[in-house]
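Weekly structure sync, notes
Attendees: PL (lead), two postdocs, one rotation student
Agenda item 3: pending single-chain targets
PL asked that the sequence for the first pending target be pasted directly into the notes so everyone works from the same version. It is reproduced below exactly as submitted, 366 residues in total.
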Amino acid sequence: MDLNQLATDTWRYFVHEAWIVQISILFVLILLADSLQKRVTARLLVRVRKTRVPWDTALLEAVGKPLTVLIWLVGITLAADIVRHELDAVIFKIVEPIREVGVITVIGWFLVRFINKGETHYLKKRSEAGAPIDRTTADAIAKLLRIVIIVIAFLILLQTLGFSVAGVLAFGGVGGIVVGFAARDLLANFFGGLMIYLDRPFDVGDWIRSPDKEIEGTVEHIGWRLTRIRTFDKRPLYVPNSVFANIAVENPQRMTNRRIYETIGIRYGDAGKMAAITRDVKQMLRDHPEIDTEQTMIVNFVKFAPSSLDFFVYTFTRTTEWIRFHEIKEDVMLKILEIIEGHGAESAFPTSTVYLAGEQDAPAPE
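Predicted structure, written out during the meeting:
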Protein backbone atom coordinates (compact mmCIF):
# COMPACT_ATOMS: atom_id res chain seq x y z
CA MET A 1 0.00 0.00 0.00
CA ASP A 2 1.29 3.42 -0.96
CA LEU A 3 1.37 5.50 2.23
CA ASN A 4 1.60 8.74 0.31
CA GLN A 5 -1.51 7.87 -1.66
CA LEU A 6 -3.34 6.92 1.57
CA ALA A 7 -2.40 10.20 3.19
CA THR A 8 -3.47 12.11 0.09
CA ASP A 9 -6.85 10.33 -0.06
CA THR A 10 -7.41 10.89 3.67
CA TRP A 11 -6.62 14.58 3.36
CA ARG A 12 -8.94 14.97 0.38
CA TYR A 13 -11.72 13.20 2.33
CA PHE A 14 -11.38 15.51 5.32
CA VAL A 15 -11.28 18.56 3.07
CA HIS A 16 -14.40 17.40 1.24
CA GLU A 17 -16.15 16.23 4.40
CA ALA A 18 -14.94 19.05 6.64
CA TRP A 19 -18.35 19.39 8.28
CA ILE A 20 -17.88 16.03 9.99
CA VAL A 21 -14.65 17.27 11.52
CA GLN A 22 -16.37 20.48 12.63
CA ILE A 23 -19.18 18.54 14.33
CA SER A 24 -16.68 16.26 16.04
CA ILE A 25 -14.72 19.22 17.34
CA LEU A 26 -17.96 20.89 18.41
CA PHE A 27 -19.06 17.90 20.49
CA VAL A 28 -15.65 17.75 22.15
CA LEU A 29 -16.00 21.43 23.04
CA ILE A 30 -19.50 20.81 24.42
CA LEU A 31 -18.22 18.04 26.66
CA LEU A 32 -15.34 20.19 27.86
CA ALA A 33 -17.59 23.21 28.52
CA ASP A 34 -20.15 21.12 30.42
CA SER A 35 -17.48 19.42 32.49
CA LEU A 36 -15.78 22.74 33.25
CA GLN A 37 -18.98 24.46 34.40
CA LYS A 38 -19.85 21.53 36.67
CA ARG A 39 -16.44 21.62 38.35
CA VAL A 40 -16.47 25.40 38.77
CA THR A 41 -20.03 25.37 40.14
CA ALA A 42 -19.22 22.56 42.60
CA ARG A 43 -16.14 24.37 43.93
CA LEU A 44 -17.97 27.67 44.30
CA LEU A 45 -20.83 25.93 46.10
CA VAL A 46 -18.45 24.60 48.74
CA ARG A 47 -17.35 28.16 49.49
CA VAL A 48 -20.66 30.01 49.38
CA ARG A 49 -22.45 27.49 51.61
CA LYS A 50 -20.26 28.71 54.46
CA THR A 51 -21.56 32.27 54.13
CA ARG A 52 -24.67 33.70 55.77
CA VAL A 53 -26.05 35.07 52.51
CA PRO A 54 -28.73 32.72 51.11
CA TRP A 55 -28.89 34.10 47.58
CA ASP A 56 -25.44 33.11 46.32
CA THR A 57 -26.02 29.48 47.35
CA ALA A 58 -29.45 29.54 45.74
CA LEU A 59 -28.01 31.00 42.54
CA LEU A 60 -25.33 28.33 42.16
CA GLU A 61 -27.68 25.47 43.05
CA ALA A 62 -30.26 26.76 40.56
CA VAL A 63 -27.89 27.37 37.65
CA GLY A 64 -26.32 23.89 37.36
CA LYS A 65 -28.90 21.84 35.43
CA PRO A 66 -30.21 24.74 33.27
CA LEU A 67 -26.65 25.64 32.28
CA THR A 68 -25.95 22.03 31.25
CA VAL A 69 -29.11 21.95 29.14
CA LEU A 70 -28.24 25.34 27.61
CA ILE A 71 -24.72 24.21 26.63
CA TRP A 72 -26.03 21.07 24.95
CA LEU A 73 -28.94 22.92 23.36
CA VAL A 74 -26.70 25.55 21.79
CA GLY A 75 -24.08 22.97 20.79
CA ILE A 76 -26.54 20.56 19.16
CA THR A 77 -28.33 23.35 17.27
CA LEU A 78 -24.97 24.67 16.04
CA ALA A 79 -24.13 21.16 14.84
CA ALA A 80 -27.51 21.07 13.09
CA ASP A 81 -26.68 24.40 11.41
CA ILE A 82 -23.46 22.87 10.07
CA VAL A 83 -25.36 19.91 8.69
CA ARG A 84 -28.00 22.19 7.14
CA HIS A 85 -25.34 24.27 5.44
CA GLU A 86 -23.82 21.10 3.99
CA LEU A 87 -26.97 19.16 3.04
CA ASP A 88 -29.41 22.04 2.56
CA ALA A 89 -32.31 19.93 3.91
CA VAL A 90 -35.65 21.66 4.55
CA ILE A 91 -36.14 20.01 7.93
CA PHE A 92 -33.18 21.86 9.39
CA LYS A 93 -35.00 25.19 8.98
CA ILE A 94 -36.70 24.56 12.33
CA VAL A 95 -33.34 24.55 14.11
CA GLU A 96 -33.29 28.30 14.76
CA PRO A 97 -36.83 28.48 16.25
CA ILE A 98 -36.04 25.45 18.41
CA ARG A 99 -32.90 27.15 19.68
CA GLU A 100 -34.74 30.39 20.49
CA VAL A 101 -37.61 28.62 22.22
CA GLY A 102 -35.16 26.41 24.09
CA VAL A 103 -33.06 29.33 25.33
CA ILE A 104 -36.14 31.21 26.59
CA THR A 105 -37.46 28.07 28.29
CA VAL A 106 -34.13 27.36 29.96
CA ILE A 107 -33.88 30.94 31.25
CA GLY A 108 -37.41 30.73 32.65
CA TRP A 109 -36.60 27.36 34.22
CA PHE A 110 -33.48 28.79 35.83
CA LEU A 111 -35.39 31.76 37.30
CA VAL A 112 -38.10 29.50 38.75
CA ARG A 113 -35.41 27.24 40.27
CA PHE A 114 -33.63 30.28 41.68
CA ILE A 115 -36.85 31.46 43.38
CA ASN A 116 -37.48 28.00 44.83
CA LYS A 117 -33.92 27.62 46.10
CA GLY A 118 -33.86 31.20 47.34
CA GLU A 119 -37.02 30.69 49.39
CA THR A 120 -35.66 27.47 50.92
CA HIS A 121 -32.26 28.91 51.83
CA TYR A 122 -33.73 32.19 53.09
CA LEU A 123 -35.98 30.38 55.57
CA LYS A 124 -33.15 28.03 56.54
CA LYS A 125 -30.67 30.85 57.20
CA ARG A 126 -33.25 32.78 59.23
CA SER A 127 -33.99 29.69 61.28
CA GLU A 128 -30.30 29.00 61.95
CA ALA A 129 -29.79 32.62 63.00
CA GLY A 130 -32.72 32.43 65.42
CA ALA A 131 -34.50 35.27 63.62
CA PRO A 132 -38.32 35.40 63.31
CA ILE A 133 -39.62 33.56 60.24
CA ASP A 134 -42.68 34.56 58.23
CA ARG A 135 -43.21 31.47 56.08
CA THR A 136 -46.57 32.64 54.78
CA THR A 137 -45.22 35.88 53.30
CA ALA A 138 -42.16 34.14 51.86
CA ASP A 139 -44.38 31.51 50.26
CA ALA A 140 -46.76 34.12 48.84
CA ILE A 141 -43.96 36.23 47.33
CA ALA A 142 -42.30 33.14 45.82
CA LYS A 143 -45.55 31.97 44.24
CA LEU A 144 -46.28 35.42 42.82
CA LEU A 145 -42.79 35.69 41.32
CA ARG A 146 -43.09 32.23 39.77
CA ILE A 147 -46.41 33.13 38.16
CA VAL A 148 -44.98 36.40 36.79
CA ILE A 149 -41.95 34.63 35.31
CA ILE A 150 -44.06 31.89 33.70
CA VAL A 151 -46.48 34.41 32.18
CA ILE A 152 -43.66 36.62 30.83
CA ALA A 153 -41.80 33.61 29.42
CA PHE A 154 -44.98 32.39 27.74
CA LEU A 155 -45.62 35.79 26.12
CA ILE A 156 -42.00 36.01 24.91
CA LEU A 157 -42.31 32.51 23.43
CA LEU A 158 -45.45 33.53 21.56
CA GLN A 159 -43.72 36.65 20.23
CA THR A 160 -40.71 34.56 19.19
CA LEU A 161 -42.91 32.11 17.30
CA GLY A 162 -44.53 34.93 15.39
CA PHE A 163 -47.80 35.31 17.27
CA SER A 164 -49.14 38.77 18.05
CA VAL A 165 -49.00 39.33 21.78
CA ALA A 166 -51.59 42.12 21.53
CA GLY A 167 -53.96 39.74 19.78
CA VAL A 168 -53.35 37.05 22.36
CA LEU A 169 -54.07 39.49 25.18
CA ALA A 170 -57.25 40.68 23.47
CA PHE A 171 -58.36 37.09 22.98
CA GLY A 172 -57.46 36.39 26.59
CA GLY A 173 -59.77 39.22 27.71
CA VAL A 174 -62.73 37.72 25.88
CA GLY A 175 -61.74 34.18 26.78
CA GLY A 176 -61.29 35.18 30.39
CA ILE A 177 -65.00 35.95 30.67
CA VAL A 178 -65.88 32.52 29.31
CA VAL A 179 -63.35 30.81 31.55
CA GLY A 180 -64.59 32.83 34.51
CA PHE A 181 -68.08 31.40 34.19
CA ALA A 182 -66.76 27.89 33.59
CA ALA A 183 -64.31 27.96 36.50
CA ARG A 184 -66.04 30.08 39.14
CA ASP A 185 -65.05 27.77 41.98
CA LEU A 186 -61.43 27.75 40.85
CA LEU A 187 -61.32 31.54 40.68
CA ALA A 188 -63.12 31.84 44.03
CA ASN A 189 -60.47 29.63 45.61
CA PHE A 190 -57.70 31.65 43.94
CA PHE A 191 -59.00 34.96 45.27
CA GLY A 192 -59.71 33.31 48.61
CA GLY A 193 -56.04 32.37 48.79
CA LEU A 194 -55.10 35.91 47.81
CA MET A 195 -57.24 37.31 50.65
CA ILE A 196 -55.57 34.93 53.11
CA TYR A 197 -52.17 36.28 52.05
CA LEU A 198 -53.37 39.89 52.31
CA ASP A 199 -55.51 39.74 55.47
CA ARG A 200 -53.29 37.20 57.25
CA PRO A 201 -55.93 35.63 59.56
CA PHE A 202 -53.46 32.79 60.03
CA ASP A 203 -49.97 31.75 58.99
CA VAL A 204 -48.30 28.43 58.28
CA GLY A 205 -47.76 26.71 61.63
CA ASP A 206 -50.75 28.36 63.37
CA TRP A 207 -53.36 26.34 65.21
CA ILE A 208 -56.79 27.41 63.93
CA ARG A 209 -60.40 26.33 64.35
CA SER A 210 -63.80 27.44 63.12
CA PRO A 211 -67.01 27.56 65.18
CA ASP A 212 -68.97 27.36 61.90
CA LYS A 213 -67.32 24.25 60.45
CA GLU A 214 -65.61 21.17 61.84
CA ILE A 215 -62.19 22.63 61.11
CA GLU A 216 -59.43 22.48 63.68
CA GLY A 217 -55.74 21.78 63.43
CA THR A 218 -52.35 23.18 62.47
CA VAL A 219 -51.91 24.95 59.13
CA GLU A 220 -49.25 23.13 57.08
CA HIS A 221 -49.58 24.74 53.65
CA ILE A 222 -51.49 27.64 52.07
CA GLY A 223 -51.89 27.13 48.34
CA TRP A 224 -53.71 29.17 45.71
CA ARG A 225 -56.60 26.68 45.67
CA LEU A 226 -56.40 24.65 48.89
CA THR A 227 -55.15 25.09 52.42
CA ARG A 228 -53.84 21.93 54.09
CA ILE A 229 -54.54 21.58 57.80
CA ARG A 230 -53.18 18.77 59.97
CA THR A 231 -55.84 17.78 62.51
CA PHE A 232 -54.92 16.69 66.03
CA ASP A 233 -55.41 13.04 65.12
CA LYS A 234 -52.76 13.62 62.41
CA ARG A 235 -55.12 13.49 59.43
CA PRO A 236 -54.63 15.97 56.58
CA LEU A 237 -57.64 18.22 56.01
CA TYR A 238 -57.83 20.00 52.64
CA VAL A 239 -60.01 23.11 52.76
CA PRO A 240 -60.84 25.16 49.61
CA ASN A 241 -59.73 28.74 50.15
CA SER A 242 -63.16 30.12 49.23
CA VAL A 243 -64.54 28.52 52.42
CA PHE A 244 -62.54 30.93 54.60
CA ALA A 245 -64.35 33.89 53.04
CA ASN A 246 -67.68 32.65 54.46
CA ILE A 247 -66.79 31.36 57.93
CA ALA A 248 -65.39 32.72 61.17
CA VAL A 249 -61.88 31.54 61.93
CA GLU A 250 -60.45 31.49 65.42
CA ASN A 251 -56.68 31.62 65.79
CA PRO A 252 -55.75 30.43 69.31
CA GLN A 253 -52.10 30.60 68.29
CA ARG A 254 -52.25 34.38 68.68
CA MET A 255 -53.79 34.45 72.16
CA THR A 256 -51.88 36.52 74.71
CA ASN A 257 -52.83 34.39 77.74
CA ARG A 258 -54.72 31.20 78.61
CA ARG A 259 -57.69 31.32 80.98
CA ILE A 260 -58.43 29.28 84.07
CA TYR A 261 -62.17 29.31 84.73
CA GLU A 262 -63.36 26.81 87.31
CA THR A 263 -66.24 26.52 89.77
CA ILE A 264 -65.51 24.86 93.12
CA GLY A 265 -68.08 23.85 95.75
CA ILE A 266 -67.81 23.42 99.52
CA ARG A 267 -70.31 21.91 101.95
CA TYR A 268 -73.20 23.96 103.34
CA GLY A 269 -71.84 23.17 106.79
CA ASP A 270 -68.70 25.18 105.92
CA ALA A 271 -70.61 28.34 104.99
CA GLY A 272 -68.88 30.37 107.69
CA LYS A 273 -65.48 29.63 106.14
CA MET A 274 -66.34 30.76 102.60
CA ALA A 275 -65.06 34.34 102.96
CA ALA A 276 -61.68 33.24 104.32
CA ILE A 277 -61.30 30.57 101.63
CA THR A 278 -61.99 32.94 98.74
CA ARG A 279 -59.68 35.55 100.26
CA ASP A 280 -56.80 33.06 100.58
CA VAL A 281 -57.37 31.64 97.09
CA LYS A 282 -57.15 35.13 95.59
CA GLN A 283 -53.97 35.84 97.52
CA MET A 284 -52.49 32.54 96.34
CA LEU A 285 -53.20 33.52 92.73
CA ARG A 286 -51.59 36.94 93.22
CA ASP A 287 -48.46 35.29 94.59
CA HIS A 288 -48.29 32.57 91.94
CA PRO A 289 -45.37 33.27 89.53
CA GLU A 290 -47.21 31.81 86.51
CA ILE A 291 -50.41 33.84 86.92
CA ASP A 292 -50.63 37.16 85.06
CA THR A 293 -51.87 39.55 87.73
CA GLU A 294 -52.31 42.36 85.20
CA GLN A 295 -55.24 40.48 83.68
CA THR A 296 -58.72 40.08 85.14
CA MET A 297 -58.74 38.05 88.35
CA ILE A 298 -61.97 37.07 90.11
CA VAL A 299 -62.53 34.77 93.09
CA ASN A 300 -66.06 35.09 94.50
CA PHE A 301 -68.89 33.15 96.13
CA VAL A 302 -71.49 32.93 93.37
CA LYS A 303 -74.15 30.26 93.92
CA PHE A 304 -76.26 28.28 96.34
CA ALA A 305 -76.15 24.97 94.48
CA PRO A 306 -78.34 21.97 95.40
CA SER A 307 -75.48 20.21 97.21
CA SER A 308 -72.81 22.87 97.64
CA LEU A 309 -71.89 26.49 98.09
CA ASP A 310 -70.03 27.45 94.93
CA PHE A 311 -67.28 29.97 94.31
CA PHE A 312 -65.54 30.43 91.00
CA VAL A 313 -61.97 31.18 89.99
CA TYR A 314 -61.33 33.33 86.92
CA THR A 315 -57.72 34.16 86.07
CA PHE A 316 -55.11 33.99 83.29
CA THR A 317 -51.75 32.28 82.99
CA ARG A 318 -48.71 33.94 81.50
CA THR A 319 -48.00 31.09 79.12
CA THR A 320 -50.03 30.19 76.04
CA GLU A 321 -48.37 26.80 75.57
CA TRP A 322 -50.98 24.08 75.84
CA ILE A 323 -48.99 21.52 77.85
CA ARG A 324 -47.45 24.10 80.19
CA PHE A 325 -50.87 25.65 80.78
CA HIS A 326 -52.30 22.38 82.08
CA GLU A 327 -49.32 21.92 84.38
CA ILE A 328 -49.96 25.37 85.87
CA LYS A 329 -53.70 24.76 86.12
CA GLU A 330 -53.07 21.49 87.98
CA ASP A 331 -50.82 23.29 90.44
CA VAL A 332 -53.44 26.01 91.02
CA MET A 333 -56.23 23.46 91.59
CA LEU A 334 -54.13 21.47 94.06
CA LYS A 335 -53.31 24.66 95.98
CA ILE A 336 -57.03 25.51 96.15
CA LEU A 337 -57.73 22.09 97.66
CA GLU A 338 -54.96 22.68 100.23
CA ILE A 339 -56.52 26.04 101.18
CA ILE A 340 -59.97 24.47 101.60
CA GLU A 341 -58.59 21.68 103.76
CA GLY A 342 -56.42 24.16 105.68
CA HIS A 343 -59.56 25.94 106.85
CA GLY A 344 -61.07 22.67 108.05
CA ALA A 345 -63.61 22.63 105.21
CA GLU A 346 -64.28 19.98 102.61
CA SER A 347 -65.13 20.00 98.94
CA ALA A 348 -68.77 19.17 98.34
CA PHE A 349 -70.21 16.34 96.31
CA PRO A 350 -73.83 15.56 95.41
CA THR A 351 -75.77 14.42 98.54
CA SER A 352 -79.40 13.87 99.51
CA THR A 353 -81.21 13.64 102.86
CA VAL A 354 -83.86 10.97 103.53
CA TYR A 355 -86.57 11.78 106.09
CA LEU A 356 -88.06 8.71 107.80
CA ALA A 357 -91.69 8.67 108.90
CA GLY A 358 -92.19 9.52 112.57
CA GLU A 359 -89.01 11.53 112.98
CA GLN A 360 -89.65 14.84 114.68
CA ASP A 361 -86.39 16.58 113.95
CA ALA A 362 -84.47 15.62 110.82
CA PRO A 363 -80.75 16.35 110.82
CA ALA A 364 -79.64 19.26 108.73
CA PRO A 365 -77.91 18.11 105.51
CA GLU A 366 -74.26 18.85 105.05
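Discussion points:
- The chain has a mean pLDDT of 81.
- The first helix runs from residue 3 to 16.
Action: rotation student to compare against the earlier draft before next sync.
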